[in-house]
Structure formats: structure tokens, C-alpha cells
Amino acid sequence: MMKKISVFHLVLAGIALILSGFTASAQQANSRINGLGLSSSEPIQIESDRLDIDDNSSSATFNGNVNVVQGDTLLKSGKMIVYYAGGGTVSAGATDIEKIEVSGSVVLQSGNQTATADRGLFNMVAQTLVLSGKKVVLSQGDNILVGCKLTVKMQTGDARIDSCKNERVIFQIDPKSAQQ
Known about the structure:
The chain is mainly β. The protein has a single domain (28-179), classed as lipopolysaccharide transport protein A fold, CATH 2.60.450.10. Helix content is 0%, strand content 52%. The chain contains no helices and eleven strands. Strands 1, 2, 3, 4, 5, 6, 7, 8, 9, 10 and 11 form an eleven-stranded antiparallel beta sheet that branches.
């Protein structure tokens, strides 16, 4: 069952870079990630060099220097494709979002929390978020977590980060950050 949701309400609804609780292992790390808690009452601003809306494929493609802002949360990417259920109108914001794909130097920031990746997929039907690439970096202050794929179950906040080929998950913790 899909809920009516604003185009970007989902983008941060499952990503928090609260790194406490992560455990580094040889190949992966599992944790519970708390959502960033977006306010549906805050306006969303999306900027890009071009927007193409294709009702035949039920998609809206934002190309070039994509910036999405809601409150103190920012998403940047080279391209963002929003897939919606047919029948809604994108311009009025009255659509059921099925999934959002972002690519091209993806950066997600909120406060002192940052996630970077080569691409991302926000699947609203499955309620999952996947960030992937040569290197996925999560940071909060001086705490850093590095792998190649981050998967978050948005309803539960459960998260998993997978290592890159022939490498291991890296988790760097600054003990002073817990005192702040």
C-alpha cells in the first residue's frame, strides 16, 4: 500500500548518520539507523538545470546540478528520476511516489551528518533506501563509516553496510564526539 507523499519526503526518511551502535566486521556491519525526522509541513524546493515530465512512463527527471532542500536537509546529485503511479499530477504534488533514483555524486546532508555515494535508490513500495558506489561514506562530525553499499529499511531503521571487493568496512570513531 502506497501513501501519498511529497517528492522528497522520503529522501531522508530512513537515513541518519547516528553512528553509535555500528559494529565493524570483516565484510559488513549491521545497525539500527534512526530517521532524520522530516516535517511534512516544511516546503520542499527542487532546483535543476532541466526538468522533463513524461506522463507515458509516469516519471519526472531532474537533470544537472540537482539540489533538493527541506528545512536544514539538502540532497545534491547530477540526476534524479522520480517514478510515480499513473493518475497523479507531478506539478500539483498529488502523486503516489513509487521510487526515486539519484545518480552522479550523490550528497545527502542534515546538520553535521553527511552521506555520499555514486547512486541511490529510494523504493517507497518496499520502504528501502540503498546508497551504493565505489565508496559510500557516512559521517557525523569526526565519526566516519565507509563501505560500498548501504541498505536501510525505512520503517524499522535497520541498516546494513557492505564492504567493497577485497576490502573491509571501515569505522572510525572519535571518543570525544560522544562527550559533545
